[in-house]
# Entry
Amino acid sequence: MLALQATMTRNLKTIRHDATIQEAARRMKEDRVGSLLVDRGGQVVAIVTETDVVRKAVAKGADLGKEKVEGIMSSPVASIEIQRTPQDAHDMMADLGVRHLAVTDKGKIVGLLSVRDLLVYFKRVSEPKITQD
# Structure
């Protein structure tokens, strides 16, 4: 339980479902994140990621200043309960082919876990430590 709590991001970044894809990309850049939770009426309904922007919009020539996030977002948001382990999260990401998981506590989203978060965690706990001469 403590491992996921220590590994996940608690400061959740959201964007409205009717924001433009360009607004989402700008927010990701400004906030230095690879995904945003998508809000509709105060509820998280989906996630939009850098991969969604590239594969579902840019690659198809979408007008990023006009097309809306809801046209490329991924729903439902894949999630993992907070008491699970980082290894469980790694396995779930691999099985689902996703790079982000919402971390839930009794069904409520309390954090977000990315592949990068797991890389940092596993690097920190792995032995032996590799040093540079």
In short: Helices lie at 2-7, 21-31, 50-57, 86-96, 115-125. The mean pLDDT is 93.
